[in-house]
Each structure stands twice: as structure tokens, then as C-alpha cells.
Amino acid sequence: MAKIKVHVFLKPGVLDVQGKAVEGALQGLGWSGVSNARVGKLIEFDLAGAEDPQAEAKKMCEQLLANTVIESYRIEAT
Fold this sequence. Notes:
By secondary structure, the chain is an alpha+beta fold. It is built from two helices and three strands; from the N terminus they run βαβαβ. The chain is elongated and about 50 Å long.
């Protein structure tokens, strides 16, 4: 069984409204050095029965887990 972590994040150049809100809030709380905040998501799951867990996770990302038009992803399989 493989442990899979998929990190999904907006591609550079895509406006990250949630990231801007976090950045503004942190600056408002006194962390004036914060800039270029980006917010993504982490999806974790166990995967059994896959001969190549990395390849299976990639298929999952391409079909469901990431909107590849505006999002990139990184897969960790252990």
C-alpha cells in the first residue's frame, strides 16, 4: 500500500484571491514582510493494488483532483 500526497496549487499568473486575503490579513496583524501569499490544497490518501502508485495518482490528478488549466500539482508517493 502506498501513501499518496497530492499538493495542488494555482499556476503562476492566475489570480489567487484567497492568497491575497491571507496576505492582507497577515499584514494587518503586523507581519508587514509577508508578500506573494498563495493558498493551495493537500489531498492525502492510501492507495492499494497499484503497480505504479505515482502513475495512478497522476491519472487521478489529470481526471479529477486538479483543474490542469489553472492548477499545477505535485505528487509524493511513499
